[in-house]
Write a structure and sequence with these properties.
Helix content: over 70%
Largest sheet: none
Order of helices and strands: HHHHH
CATH superfamily: Ferritin, core subunit, four-helix bundle
Shape: elongated
Bound molecules: MU-OXO-diiron
Number of strands: 0
Distance between the termini: 18 Å
Number of domains: 1
Strand content: under 5%
Mean pLDDT: 98
Number of helices: 5
Low-confidence stretches: none
Structural class: mainly alpha
Length: 169
Amino acid sequence: MINEKMEKAFNDQINKELYSEYLYLSMKAYFERLNLKGFVNWMNVQIQEEHAHGMGMFDYLHQRGGKVVLEAIDKPKSDWTSPLNCFEEILAHEEYVTSRINALLDVAEETKDRAATIFLNWYLKEQVEEEDSVGGVLASLKLIGDDKKALLMLDKELATRVFNPPVIG
Ligand code: FEO
């Protein structure tokens, strides 16, 4: 049976992962408006990943005999000033998520929940990949500046991203 404090931390994080899904859905709508279909595809993959992250914790809580309590999901913003501005915010968001996963690991350590530590290590590794992937797109956008042709080339590249359902834990 999972400890109450750990259970609460997992429930908070389920909410944050589902908020992430919602945020990327809003960003997908932004890129639809810009008609940048490769970016739309990138967001699609991200949306599915965030859903999988949330559901991974949802399933894990049940496996541990815990109770899932869903809270309201915050309203994401719907406008950004440029693709660069959008990806700057994504990186900041993913860094925040990484800090939350670290906070969950602190609770696992404090409550001596070794099983949760092992489970959460997967999420920590995933965050390293997330920050790296977002940082890559951000670096390209900085290089591109106002060059519309280069932006369309990046859009083509992002159209090739595919969702591979993660094996969590
Ligand atoms: Fe679920 Fe993007 O972290």
